[in-house]
Each structure stands twice: as C-alpha cells, then as structure tokens.
Design a protein that fits this description.
Two copies of one chain form a homodimer. The first copy, chain A, has ten helices and eleven strands. With 337 residues, chain A is an alpha+beta fold. The two termini of chain A are 34 Å apart.
Chain lengths: 337, 337
C-alpha cells in the first residue's frame, strides 16, 4: 500500500458503499447522522487467526463480518438498516485485497439492503499484527420490541433453526484435522465461511419467541446464556439435534457417539437462531418457519433450576467437557475448535 | 488471563460500566436498544504502537479512546449519550491491566456522563498482535443540526480552540527524540496522553460555525478536509497559531523557524476544534469561547481556489512537506510524527 493514503482508500473503495446512506455524507465528514428512530445496535469483531483463517479470501471475510452481525440482529427480531465499519489492516496488505474486501461488502450490502454509514480505517506496521475487523450494525426493532435472552419461562419449548455443527466440521475440514468426502467438505466449509443470517425467521419470531440468541459460541454455551438470563435450566435432547446429511454421515462414522454429539453441541459459528416459546405456540412457531422457508427443530425444554444438560436417547446426560467457543481461552486450532 | 472467560471479564469489569444505560440490559444480551432519537455517530480506533505507546498506562489509554471519539462529537456540535466498545487484547494481558482499563473508562464515563451500551471483547493469541480498541460513540445533534465539514464560505474566518502542537511535542518528548525542561515535558506529555474534548465549545458553536472538524491528523491536513469538502481554499497565518508556553519556548530555541512552524502545523493528536464562521459572527464566536471558557484564536481565512497554505509573517508560503499524520503511511516513530 505504499503511496496510498487512508483518504485515497476511503474515497476509492469505501465511499461508494455509502452512496445509499443519507446521513453518511459520502464518508466525507467526521460523523454520520442517523434519522430519528429506535435502534437495535450490535457490534462484533472478527480477527484473522481467531474468527477466520488468515488465508481466507477477503471478499468472503467481508461478507462473514456483515453476516455475523446480521445474525445477532436476526436473533433479536430486528430489521437491519445500516452499519459502521472498523478496519485495521496489516502493513503487508495489497490494494487488490482491499478491493476484494470492498467487493464482498458490496455484494452483501445489496443482498441485505445495508448501506455503510461510516467508520475508521487504519494500518498497523507491527510484524504479526493480524487483520482486525469490527462492525457496528443498526436495525429497527419489530413492533413488539426486541427479543431478549431473558424471557424464557418454565415449560417453554427450545427450538433451533437450520442444522447444527456444520460450521465446526467445516473448520475441521479446512484445518485438515479430519477427512470428509469432497461434496461434504465443500458444503461444510461453505457453512463455516459464509453463514446465512436468519433475518426473515427472526422477524417472524418477534412477539412469539419468549427468548432468543444466535448460535455463535456453540449450542451449549448459547443455551446457557438464555438459561442464565432467564434464571432457569434447559434440557436438550441430543437425538433431536437437526443435522445436515454431511454432519449425520460424520456422526455415523464416529466410534464414540456421545463424544460426537458433545462436539456438535459445542462447535461455534453456526449462526442459527436458538429460541424458546410457550408450548401453546407450537403451531405458530411452525408457521413462522414455513413463512420464512427455514427449517425449525424442537430440541429441548426449559426447566426449573440452572445450567444446561445434553441428554442422550437413553436418558443419560452426555458430558460436554467444554462449554463452547470461548474467545478468551483459545483461538483457531486444528482439531480443537 | 488463564482461566478467566470472556463472560467473566465482561461481568466483572464491563457490566458495571453499563449500569446507567437503560437499553444496555447489563451487557447480558446480544444487542442494545437505543431510545428513539436522531443520532450523531462516530467511530475511532486506537492501536498500540500507532495511536498510543505500547507501555502507556491502560487507564489513560481507555480515557484517550473515549476522548478522541468525544472530540469528534464536540466538533460536530453534538452532546454524547453513550458508546459501544470493542477490545482485542493480546494474549499476554494481565487481569490487573483490564481492571485498570475499566477504571479509566469509569473515570471518564462519570466526567462525561457517558454510559457503555455494549460491544465485543476478544483475545488474540498471535505473538505481536497489538492491543486494538474501538469505540462507537452516539450523541444528540444540536437543535440547529450537525456542524458539517462542507459549509465554509469564501471570506469566512478560520479559528482554532486551545493551543496547537503540544501533543506532537509530547510524543517527541516521550520517544526521547527531543529534550524539554521537566515542567514543559510533563505538560506536553499530558496533552498527548489525555486530550480535552471541547464539548462545551462545540455545543456553543452549533448554528454559528459554518464548518468544523477536530484536529486529529494535524492542522494542515484537517484544514484540507474542510477546504476540500467546501470546494474552497484556506490560508493560515503561521504567526497567529496559538501556542502554549512550552511550545513557544521550543519554537524560540529552534534554528529554522519556518521548519518548526511547519512541524507544529502538521503534528497530530491536538484534538482541538478547527472551524470557520462568517466575519459577521466575530463577536458571537468570541462569546462562545467565553461561555465555554475555552481560548479561541483566529488563524486564517477561507479563499477561492483549493488547497491549504501556511503563510509566514513575511508573506511567504511555508513549505509543509507532509500533510499531517496519515495512518496509512506511518506509525509512531521517534522524531518522525
């Protein structure tokens, strides 16, 4: 990037991404002006070597950055309206990489109608400084308000959208700790690299789900967030976990079925919606899934007490040694995440 | 930080900082909910080794993080209402450092009545990964709207608050490239480490200043932002630059006065407000300064044309080889910034 200034880069690659944002002023001011409204706000950071692989294509990294934030918005029942972007580039960054990154943003901005409102872009000279990305996403809450984590009631059902464990297996496939058939590997890796935020489903669940969260830290960990915030316990039926064909094939090939269930229940990066709803709402939940064209599985129940238990078909509790992806205790490591 | 999880750290150190923020939900949810309003939003990143020195005390770094964002808000005439925080800690971080960082945030949150609304906290394992901090600050615009960069008119006066160049000299003193008397060094270093956002002045300038920006990239560079956005040129009188006693003493001791003026005009990190206003507003501007108890100096004029010129008392233009602190072309280096 010799010769290019921060302002050149912003003008050439980022200002076009702000063309549709009224209060962004083409990124030519110090601040943006958001129109008067309630706002749901979420902020997630992605770091090379922690949340994505350093050799990942930057257009996909850009889209993942938006999508992990969109996934939070989806779980809260919100409709995204815009975002702010923070980039810290390593000194070695090439202009074509910034161009690819901006192109990825453009693709998903178009898909999700999500203009860029502002941000900050900088370079770090230190050797080993990783690409670090941050997005602050704004959205409009549903008429019924934001779906909270703390609204689960005793007796509620626990549901999850889509399938679980794919992204974790995709990461294992990428880091070569495990072998998969080529078609399965391709599917699993896509699920790791490019999550699908469940925005339509999230909107349909507003006023219906009693609590919700997106599965980013792993099923057990995220269920624990709902349980703790609601002051209750959650039991999850391992046999009810929705699995893709690829994940089911992997599970069948494993010698220790309990250990494999435990792995699927603690992988991170699924970006599905985990939510609770009263039993009286089962038909309504099923309809929400149909409207959103998103599969929904009923996987457990909310109980008195505390903690989260993963229970096998035999009725025995399955030990899950780790309660999910904890950014403070480990990073991306082959075969460990 | 062995043993402590992201959630422990958030609960212990960051949740108390969100106690006064209604829609922050004690940092126990995925997102925050901001009440219905117009919002000015600004986002600035600070990186160890670029924007502060790796050995700087983390309570001061925390306060600088808030203050550089508050300075943007001040220049836009806004009143800050809350912020989101992003932290990427190096693996080597000690819990007492996180505690010191949170303590610094608490001090300035109290001073500026600025609750924490949410954010993301993570750790990077890679050797050499620098502490990286990001804040997204929200505020209310003045009744007359946000002060923009692009409103300067031909014939307007150019003003700056406080004094210029202190922070740059403070950085030189810290990096030992230059010697200063002890009292001067202490003053200059404080100006580098702990800027004073000019919030009261910014509020008083709303509806009065035709354009404004805070001086973060250096006077020449930030004046160029106003000039470019307004489609005009700016002439700055070097002799009119407001200097502290310490900076004036430094200037007097220099052999090449023009070169020294050029340095003062291109140092970054002053976090003063640079603004334009019609000549008819001179009394009103002076009163705004008095109300805000902030010195204001008239240092130049807005002209037809383009670019920014620094002019000596002789009438000659002073060459400024570099147009300020550019995060894409260099980092903190002894004697270079």
């Amino acid at each position: 990037m010799a010769g290019a200034s921060e302002f050149d880069v912003i003008g050439k690659y980022f200002a076009p991404l702000a063309a549709d944002a009224d209060g962004a002023f083409g990124l030519t001011d110090d601040a943006a002006l958001l129109p008067s409204a309630d706002y749901i706000v979420t902020k997630d950071i992605l770091i090379a070597g922690v949340h994505f692989l350093p050799r990942d294509r930057l257009d996909l990294v850009a889209r993942k950055l938006l999508r992990v934030n969109l996934s939070d918005m989806a779980a809260k029942g919100g409709r995204p309206t815009g975002y702010f972007l923070g980039c810290v580039w390593p000194m070695s960054v090439k202009e074509r990489q910034i161009a690819a990154f901006a192109e990825g943003l453009a693709v998903d901005q178009a898909q999700y109608r999500l203009p860029l409102y502002g941000g900050d872009t900088t370079v770090h000279k230190a050797k080993g400084a990783p690409l670090t990305l941050s997005a602050t996403l704004f959205g409009a809450p549903a008429r019924t308000g934001m779906i909270r984590r703390n609204g689960a009631h005793h007796g509620d059902d626990l549901y999850v959208s889509g399938t679980l464990g794919d992204a974790g297996l995709g990461l294992r496939a990428l880091t070569k700790a495990e072998k998969f058939p080529a078609a399965d590997k391709s599917y699993l890796v896509d699920r790791y690299r490019l999550p699908s935020p469940r925005l339509t489903l999230g909107g349909a669940l507003a006023g219906l789900a009693s609590a919700a969260i997106d599965v980013s830290d792993g099923l057990m960990n995220d269920a624990a967030h709902i349980a703790r915030a609601s002051g209750l316990a959650i039991d999850i039926n391992a046999g009810a976990l929705p699995l893709s064909t690829a994940a089911a094939a992997w599970l069948d090939a494993m010698s220790d079925r309990s250990e494999s269930f435990a792995a699927l229940a603690t992988f991170g990066d699924d970006y599905e919606i985990l939510f609770t709803a009263p039993q009286s709402m089962r038909r309504a939940v099923a309809m929400a899934g149909q409207v959103a064209k998103t599969p929904i599985a009923r996987i457990g129940t909310v109980q008195r007490g505390e903690g989260v238990r993963l229970i096998a078909d035999t009725g025995d509790e399955i030990e899950t040694a780790e309660t999910g992806f904890d950014h403070f205790s480990r990073a991306v490591q082959p075969g460990k995440t």
